[in-house]
Amino acid sequence: MQILENIRLAFSSILANKMRALLTMLGIIIGISAVITITTIGSSIQKTLTNTFNSMGSMNFFEIYSQINWEKAEPDEDGYYSWDENDRLSREMLDGLVQTYPEYFSMNLSESYGSSELRNWQDQSMSVSINGVLNFEHLDGMDLDILSGRGINYQDNANRKQTIVVSDLFVSQYFSPDADPLGQTVTLDLSTGQAEDFVVVGVYELPEFYEKQVYQPGMKELEKVTPVYVPLDTMMYLLHQEDNYRYWADIYYNPEYDIDMLEQLLKNFFDEQYEKAEKPYMTVEVMNMQKQLGMINAVVNVITLAISVIAAISLIVGGVGVMNIMLVSITERTKEIGIRKALGAQNRSIRMQFVTEAILICLIGGVIGIISGILNGMIIGYVAKAVITNMYPEEASMFAITVQPSVIAMLISVVFSILTGVFFGYYPANKAAKMNPIDALRYD
Fold first, then answer.
1. How far is it, in rounded angstroms, from Cα 353 to Cα 337?
2. d(CA 404, CA 400)
3. Residue 16: which of 348, 361, 430, 315 has the closest Cα?
4. Which of 167, 178, 180, 305 could form a disulfide with 226 if both were Cys (CB 3.0 to 4.6 A apart)?
5. Contacts of 5 (CB under 8 A, 6+ apart)
6. Whole-prediction pTM
């Protein structure tokens, strides 16, 4: 009951001096608002980056690049380090990795083979873009959903099957409404001029970003060019092409295993392959999107923490202001303190009364500061979204801007506000508690 009474007295004192209480809270409000604004921006940047990367598809893959192993490379007569295209990653190496560690790694290679004109079931003209893929499951990092049938796989490539995976939009463009596309034949005109039949083995859902980024508003359905996917090795065979070497490749890994172990295993495998090929001067550089995102988030965290600490210094100024006003308040209420002590109030009760008032002032200021900081963060987020939309309209849809206040920062701010009230309110409260009641009653 004494706590409730102290809170009631604190509210009465604050309401009796509204302007002074507000000015006292101002330092706390500004400090907390600055901290919440900064942490909201930091957490929003992290969330935006995570959502943006996730919207691009799976991040469980390594990007590997062939490069010179500087520890083993030797310069030529002119002092230069050189290597030719035969030193790049070979298809044999890449296939060997998947065959050696099928439980750890999978791979996808893709290539664009231009477009093809088709005539649909009503003899209307339409177009598709032809893409050769090794593994539909990890298509350019996009998680395309198979609505029916299956995707292109390694067996299709190994056996050079003339299979094809089409989009749901293609189905509505090409086939009659009651037709089952699976097992149907689609004839594609290749760049060599030859026409080849491909059997539909799967239908995938065309991603929403095609409507936003690829297709123009008001475009007719038959004018929309959709990607179709066929086995990469089949296309190379039909077009009499070779794909023996490449500078880079995406290697997908099983997220159930330790990423550092997989990365080291990957490097060791290709180093061994280059050794066998008598090319010890070559190696691979391994990059991982998740680790890169983690590094970016770590940098954002450090910057956010550093700026937040600087902003929190203003709380000390606010705390000093609380102490100053509490000393003034005690001086003004000297006679009240004397009367309470004359009626039997203990020093502990007087001290708690004024500490409670200081805590309440800081707590109210902290809550206002938190609300202000969240509003600031939201405003900055909307402004950033508007700027990106206006200045970079083509890339705007790629950014999943998310404003996310930091719950931990808000909880810490509340606790910090209470501690500020206790720390800066204790001295004035203790001074009030030690007053001599006789001197206090004679105070004018």
1. 10
2. 12
3. 361
4. 167
5. none
6. 0.58
357, 337 contact by CB (below 8 A): no
**CB 56 within 8 Å of CB 141:** yes
Among 224, 214, 289, CA closest to 57: 289
Q: Is 401 helix (H, G, I), strand (E, B) or coil?
A: coil
Nearest to 59 by CA among 247, 248, 253, 207: 253
Residue owning tokens 């083993």: 72
Please list the pLDDT of the chain residue by residue as tens digits (444 residues). 467 777 787 777 778 778 888 887 888 888 888 888 888 888 877 777 776 666 555 567 888 888 888 888 777 776 776 777 778 888 889 889 988 998 999 887 888 898 999 999 999 999 999 999 888 776 655 667 899 999 998 899 989 999 999 999 999 999 999 999 999 999 999 988 889 999 999 999 988 777 766 787 788 888 899 999 999 999 999 988 877 777 788 888 888 888 889 999 999 999 999 888 888 888 888 888 777 777 777 777 787 777 777 777 777 777 777 787 777 777 777 777 777 777 777 777 778 877 888 888 888 888 898 898 888 888 887 887 777 777 766 555 556 667 778 788 888 888 888 888 788 777 777 777 777 766 656 655
d(CA 324, CA 88): 72
Where does residue 142 rank: exposed (0-12), middle (13-18), buried (19+ CB within 10 A)? middle
Range list of β-strands (E), 134-275: 146-149, 163-167, 185-189, 195-204, 226-231, 245-246, 248-253
Amino acid (one-letter) located at 86: N
Both tokens of residue 133?
A: 């893929």
Please answer whether residues 267 and 288 qualify as being in contact, where contact means their C-beta atoms are separated by less than 8 angstroms. Answer: no
Question: Under 8 Å CB-to-CB from 269, ≥6 apart: which residues?
Answer: 97, 100, 101
Element holding 349 (H helix, E strand): helix 347-391
Helices H / strands E in the chain, number of each: 14, 13
Q: Is 274 in a helix, a strand, or coil?
A: helix
Question: Using CB atoms within 10 A of its CB, is residue 315 exposed (0-12), middle (13-18) or buried (19+)?
Answer: buried
Cβ neighbours of 9 (radius 10 Å): 16
Output the six-digit token pair for 281. Answer: 């001067």
Please list the residues that pair with 248 across neighbouring strands. 65
Q: Provide CB contacts within 8 A for 247, sequence distance 6+.
A: 65, 66, 88, 89
- The span from the CA of 395 to the CA of 307, in Å, is 29
> 205, 229, 187: which is closest to 147 by C-alpha?
205
Which structure tokens are listed for 387? 């700027």
